[in-house]
C-alpha cells in the first residue's frame, strides 16, 4: 500500500460490516492514513472459511476469531447498524447515535445457519465457546446427517469423516451434482469421488421434508429424518448447510430501489452503488456476477479503497471485472479439489494451498496480529 495522503476534515469513511471485505478495506484505509470507522455487531472478525473445521476439531475455534479493537483501536465501533440516512449522509446505530460519512462502504455480507455462519451478537470468548459446544455435539454422535450439498455441505461432510472416520455421515442434497454450479464438471465429479472414498453416504436428488421439526446442531438419541423419496433415516445430529441469504437489513429501506432480486446492491464497474458516487458495496452484498467468496470480497476492497484515494487525487477510477473463476474446496485437512483461473488443479496443490490451514494465517496477517498456537 502506498504512502499516506493528506485529507481534509470533511473526509470520513464508514465501513458497515467487518467480514473479509470490511477488514481488508479498513486495513488499507489505515495504511493510507484516511479517517474511518468500521462498525460491526461483534467484537471480533470471524474467519468463517474455517468455521466447519472449528465445529469438529477442539481448540481450532480460537484461531477463527480475531479482535477488531486490537487492530483498529478507536476506528472500530461495536454496534448494530439499523439504517441509513442518505440525505444527511449518516449511518444510524441501534443505540440512537449516528455516524457521519463522506464515503460509505457497505460490506454487510450474508447470513446463514450455524456453524457455517456465526450471526449472533456476541463477544469473542462466547463465540469460541459456541464452536466448542458444537465439537462436543459431534463427538457424542454416531450418525450425523448433513443437509445441503453445496460447497459448505460437502466441506462439512469431509471434515466430519476426516476427523471421525468411524462415524456414519450422510449427505442429503436436492440436486444430483454436488458443490457450486459455477465449478467445472470435472471438479464437481471429483468432489463426489472424494466423499465416497471417505465413506460418506450420499442421498442425491432427495429433499428433507421434515426439516422444520428437526433439532439442529444438537445431539439426540434418535432424530427421524425423512425425504421426499420416502427415505427414512435415524440420526443423532443434523447439521444444516444451505439457505445462505444476502444481509440486506441495513440498506433495504434506504436503498430498496437499488437492490437486485437476491437482496444484493446493484453496482457499476467501480463498485459504486448505482446513482451514488460516494457509496460502495463490496463482498456478498454487491451484485457482481461471480460466486460469493471471501477471496472476491478482498479484491472488491482493493478496488474501492483505490477509488476513494483516486477520487481525492482527482485521478481516474479503477474498474472491477470478474475474472475466470478461482475456487478451492477443502475436503478435510488432507484433501481438496478446485480450479484456479478456470483451470482444474489437483488435490495435492489444494491440500497445500488451502486445506491445511484454511487461510487462517492470512486473516491474522491482515489484522496484523499473531495467531494462537
What does this structure look like?
The chain is of the alpha/beta class and 373 residues long. 27% of the residues lie in helices and 21% in strands. It contains nine helices and 21 strands. It has helices at 20-32, 51-54, 68-72, 124-140, 151-163, 185-198, 294-312, 347-355, 360-366, and strands spanning 13-16, 36-40, 44-46, 65-67, 76-78, 81-85, 90-93, 98-100, 103-106, 110-111, 143-147, 168-173, 201-204, 223-226, 232-235, 237-240, 245-246, 279-281, 327-330, 336-340, 343-345. The strands form seven sheets. The protein has a five-stranded parallel sheet. It has a four-stranded parallel sheet with strand order 13-12-11-16, covered by helices on one side. The longest helix has 19 residues, at 294-312. The protein is globular and about 65 Å long.
SSE arrangement:
Elements: E1 13-16, H1 20-32, E2 36-40, E3 44-46, H2 51-54, E4 65-67, H3 68-72, E5 76-78, E6 81-85, E7 90-93, E8 98-100, E9 103-106, E10 110-111, H4 124-140, E11 143-147, H5 151-163, E12 168-173, H6 185-198, E13 201-204, E14 223-226, E15 232-235, E16 237-240, E17 245-246, E18 279-281, H7 294-312, E19 327-330, E20 336-340, E21 343-345, H8 347-355, H9 360-366
Parallel strand pairs: 1-2, 1-9, 2-5, 9-18, 11-12, 11-16, 12-13
Antiparallel strand pairs: 3-4, 6-7, 7-8, 10-17, 14-15, 19-20, 20-21
Question: Could you list some keywords that capture this structure?
Answer:
single chain, 373 residues, 5-stranded parallel beta sheet, 4-stranded parallel beta sheet, 9 helices
What is the count of DSSP helices, taking H or I runs of 4+ residues? 9
Kindly name the structural category: alpha/beta
Shape category: globular
Low-confidence stretches: none
**Proportion of residues in helical segments:** 25-40%
The SSE order reads EHEEHEHEEEEEEHEHEHEEEEEEHEEEHH
